[in-house]
Specification:
By secondary structure, the protein is an alpha+beta fold. It contains twelve helices and ten strands. The protein has four domains: 39 residues, no CATH class; 136 residues, no CATH class; 114 residues; 99 residues, no CATH class. The longest helix is centred in the N-terminal third of the chain and has 13 residues. The radius of gyration is 29 Å and the shape is globular. The chain binds heme C.
Length: 454
């Protein structure tokens, strides 16, 4: 306010100011501009870790603040494999520090590429649907899935509707109670809104009137869509109806406990981003390829920094990343090896070391859905797949127990001139991202020891 009134009064004195305020010379020769800037809030100081665990010390040295974590670790989980991550929409875009901050307390899987890729615990309570008709005795019912099947409206009197007929399909969480097969009615879509003052209100935000067919014992409705109603349906789809079971597996995630967020302040174990790096959350498998897909997986020190960062986040929305990460009071500093993604060197068993190593480093491309080189290196099928003949060189086995030199897998990992195609693991950036010497040693030892499934 002060600034405005001063500018105004100097303008009144200078005649030229009226025509062009910007070019007006300040008669006093100085620039009067002293806005009230907010005090730069200094991040609270954090006492450093002074123990002797080398992993904690490494993490503290490399990642003193959340900003270091973002630049050195988070950016790597997605960049520079632009095409790998974002075209599939499977990963949230975490390229900028602002996006990373925005992930705190934000819902997960809002942009999942496929319905199957959605984790149950990312599902939110769905919007509700209600038919305004005396033929129905249910109130509003939670929507599980809303699906529009395009196509010419058939004559349902001739061929009865099914769950794949053209029209608007609504799967409901609880069955609609009626003895009718078809109901002409206005269908209302209802959502609970909470205004900034905390007032909770159920509002019917869209409606659609048509003939509704009752399918599957009332758990699914099919709304006929006439040509002139296409706009109304498109408007409805544009609004984005919140579905309670978008992955269509019959489990309404939000009914089985609190939905999780991308990053949950104070709780790394239920932070979806971290679960995507580990492949599990509290014992349940998380669908989708592991992050990072084709870059170096996170080391134990990197995992520790991520866990301690999230554990130390204050509730509410932190506004900056440059505060110090508290490694001293972080509960994971007591035993960071718990955060190892693929076991430690020295214990070279299939289940304890080799399988997790392959899963994390290779599973993104060699997954069961669409395995590169017809080779699955993720989950239960990996072991048998490794003992089979190589696809690129059928005269060789992928693994010849006892003999790394004649195992195609080993030749691929060491970029032997004998191989077809590329050395492994491939990297979109550099062509080849060789495994660390510890990882290679353990794979060689495992093959030399007979490639046993132990
Ligand atoms: C970025 C994707 C990607 C990653 C990561 C990756 N691979 Fe591959 N892999 C491929 C593709 C594509 C092929 C098929 C073309 C070829 O053989 O070069 C392949 C082929 C192979 C083959 C040959 C299979 C055969 O029977 O011909 C082996 C063995 C292999 N990969 C092992 C691995 C291992 C082990 C890792 C992890 C340490 C790994 N790959 C990581 C993409 C990948």
């Amino acid at each position: 306010m002060r600034y405005h009134s001063m500018l105004l009064s100097s303008c009144l004195l200078a005649a030229a100011c009226a025509e062009s305020g910007r070019d007006a010379p300040d008669p006093t020769g100085g620039i009067v501009f002293t806005p009230d800037r907010p005090e730069r809030e200094h991040a609270p100081s954090v006492a450093p870790y002074t123990g002797s665990d080398p992993i904690v010390l490494e993490a503290q040295a490399r990642f003193p603040t959340g900003l270091d974590l973002h630049v050195k670790v988070i950016q790597r989980t997605c960049s520079p494999t632009e095409g790998v991550c974002h075209n599939t929409k499977e990963y949230p875009d975490l390229h900028t520090a602002a996006n990373f901050l925005a992930a705190i307390g934000a819902p997960c899987n809002v942009q999942a590429g496929t319905r199957e890729g959605i984790f149950d615990r990312c599902e939110r309570p769905g919007d509700r649907f209600e038919l305004a008709s005396n033929a129905v005795s249910s109130g509003p019912i939670e929507i599980g899935v809303l699906r529009y099947v395009p196509g010419e409206k058939p004559d349902f009197k001739l061929s009865p509707p099914t769950t794949s007929s053209p029209g608007l399909h609504i799967k409901l969480a609880d069955p609609l109670v009626t003895d009718r097969e078809e109901i002409w009615a206005e269908g209302r879509f209802i959502r609970t809104f909470v205004d900034p003052a905390g007032l909770v209100q159920d509002i019917a935000y869209q409606s659609f009137g048509t003939r509704w067919w009752v399918l599957s014992g009332g758990t699914e409705l099919l709304g006929e869509v006439n040509q002139w109603q296409a706009d109304a349906v498109n408007a409805l789809l544009d609004v984005g109806v919140v579905e309670g079971d978008p992955n269509m597996n019959g489990i309404f995630g939000a009914r089985h406990g609190e939905p999780v967020d991308l990053l949950v302040p104070g709780d790394p174990e239920t932070s979806y981003l971290i679960a995507r790096v580990r492949g599990v959350m509290e014992g349940s498998d998380v669908p989708g390829t592991r992050m990072p897909l084709a870059n170096q997986p996170l080391s134990t020190a990197e995992m520790l920094a991520l866990f301690c960062f999230v554990e130390g986040l204050p509730g509410g929305a932190p506004s900056r990343l440059d505060g110090a990460i508290d490694f001293k009071d972080c509960s994971y500093s007591a035993d960071p090896t718990r955060l190892e993604l693929y076991g430690s060197s020295g214990d070279v068993t299939w289940s304890g070391r080799i399988a997790p190593l392959l899963e994390v480093n290779c599973g993104g491309c060699h997954d069961a859905d669409d395995p590169s080189g017809e080779l699955i290196l993720s989950g239960d099928e990996a072991f048998d797949a490794l003992l089979a003949d190589a696809d690129g060189k059928p005269s060789m086995k992928r693994v010849e127990p006892g003999s790394p030199e004649t195992s195609y897998l080993w030749l691929k990992l060491t970029n032997d001139p004998e191989i077809e195609g590329s050395p492994m693991p491939t990297s979109p950036l550099t062509g080849w991202r060789p495994l660390s010497s510890e990882d290679l040693d353990d794979i060689r030892i495992w093959i030399e020891n007979g490639a046993i499934r132990d």
